[in-house]
Amino acid sequence: MPVKHTTSSIFAKRLKEARVRARLTQEQLGINAGIDEFSASARINQYERGKHLPHLLMGQRLARALHVPTSFLYEEDDLLADLLIVAARLTRGKKKILLANAEALRQSASSRTTKPSNV
Question: Which Gene3D superfamilies match (predicted)?
Answer without folding.
Answer: lambda repressor-like DNA-binding domains (1.10.260.40)
